[in-house]
Design brief:
The protein is mainly β. The protein has 1 helix and 20 strands. The protein has a single domain, classed as Peptidase G1 (Jelly Rolls, Sandwich), CATH 2.60.120. The longest helix has 10 residues.
Length: 283
C-alpha cells in the first residue's frame, strides 16, 4: 500500500510512498493518560497523506537471473511481480493471506503493508489494494485500504482488521475500468469494493508485495511482521489466466542502503501461486 513503487536497487521501479507527516515523532505523543480512542485517532491521522508515487528509473541495475527468473533488490518491496518482458499486459490480479501480527518493540512509528496490484513495477501508475499494519507509540493498528495512483492518495476503509483475519484482495480491469475489492471474511466491516477509471494506466505488471511505506524523506521503518504468506495468487494477461509462475516473474528482496536484507521472499510453491516473505530487520 503505502509507498512509492519499488525502489529497486536492482530493479525496474520504485514504489515511493509520498507520505507527508508519517515519520516517527510526527503527531502528538500518546501517554499513559491518553484515552484509547484518542490514541487510535492520532494513529489514523498519520495515514491521511499516504499516496503512491514512483521513481522514473525503470532500469534493473543489480539483477540476477536464476532458472529463468529475475532476482532483484528493492529498498521497499519484497515479494513477486509478473513483468512485461514478453510484452504482457495484465487485467486481473488476486491474492489471499492471513493478516500477520506485528511486534511493536519500541515507541518508534513503523509500518508494514501487504497488497496486490497492477502496475507500479515499470510504470507511473498503480492500481492496488490490501492491508496495512502500523506501530504507533508501541501499539499496533491495522487497516484495509485501496489506491489509484496518481489519481488519489491511499483510501483507508477498514479500521478493525486484526491479526489472523482471512484476507482476499483483487484488482480486475475491464477496458479503462478497475474494480478493486478486498474481503475480510473474519470482520466483514473491513471489506470493500470500488470501481475506478484510468484511461492511461500501463497495465504492464502484476504484483504481490509486502512493503515498507515511504515518506518524502525516504523509506520508513519496517514493522516486524514475522512472516507473511501469500496464497492463491492468480493473474491474467490477454486471454491467458494463470498464476505467478505462468508469466515472466521477478523475485524481489527488500534490502537497506547497505544491502542488508530487510524482508526475504521464499521460493514459489509447487503450484506457482504462493510464497512466504520473512521479516529480517526494521531499517
Amino acid at each position: 500500500m503505502p509507498r512509492r513503487i519499488p525502489r529497486l536497487l536492482a530493479g525496474p521501479l520504485i514504489a515511493c510512498l509520498l507520505v507527508m507527516g508519517l515519520l516517527a515523532g510526527f503527531g502528538p505523543a500518546a501517554s499513559a493518560t491518553t484515552p484509547p480512542g484518542s490514541a487510535r485517532a492520532a494513529a489514523l491521522a498519520q495515514l491521511r497523506h499516504l499516496m503512491v508515487g514512483q521513481d522514473p528509473d525503470h532500469r534493473v541495475g543489480h539483477s540476477v537471473r536464476v532458472n529463468g527468473q529475475n532476482q532483484v533488490q528493492s529498498t521497499n518491496w519484497s515479494g513477486y511481480a509478473d513483468d512485461n518482458s514478453a510484452g504482457n499486459t495484465y487485467s486481473t490480479v488476486t491474492g489471499n493471506w492471513t493478516e500477520p501480527a506485528v511486534t511493536c518493540s519500541s515507541r518508534k512509528t513503523q509500518y508494514a503493508a501487504f497488497w496486490v496490484g497492477i502496475d507500479g513495477y515499470s510504470s507511473n501508475s498503480v492500481e492496488q489494494d490490501g492491508t496495512l499494519a502500523e506501530c504507533y507509540h508501541g501499539t499496533a493498528y491495522y487497516y484495509s485500504w485501496w489506491e489509484m495512483y496518481p489519481a488519489n492518495s491511499v483510501q483507508t476503509v477498514g479500521t478493525s482488521v486484526r491479526p489472523g483475519d482471512s484476507i482476499s484482495a483483487s484488482v480486475v480491469r475491464t477496458g479503462t475500468s478497475y474494480n478493486l475489492s478486498l474481503t475480510d471474511s473474519t470482520r466483514p466491516a473491513d471489506s470493500f469494493t470500488t470501481t475506478q477509471t484510468c484511461s492511461n494506466c500501463a497495465n504492464s505488471s502484476a504484483e504481490w508485495i509486502a512493503e515498507a511505506p515511504s515518506s518524502s524523506r525516504g523509506v520508513l521503518p519496517l514493522a516486524n511482521f514475522g512472516t507473511w504468506t501469500e496464497s492463491g495468487a492468480t493473474d491474467k494477461s490477454g486471454s491467458t489466466s494463470g498464476v505467478i509462475s505462468t508469466f515472466p516473474d521477478d523475485e524481489i528482496t527488500m534490502v537497506d542502503s547497505s544491502g542488508l536484507v530487510k524482508a526475504q521472499p521464499g521460493p514459489l510453491n509447487g503450484s506457482g501461486n504462493g510464497f512466504t516473505v520473512t521479516w529480517e530487520r526494521t531499517s
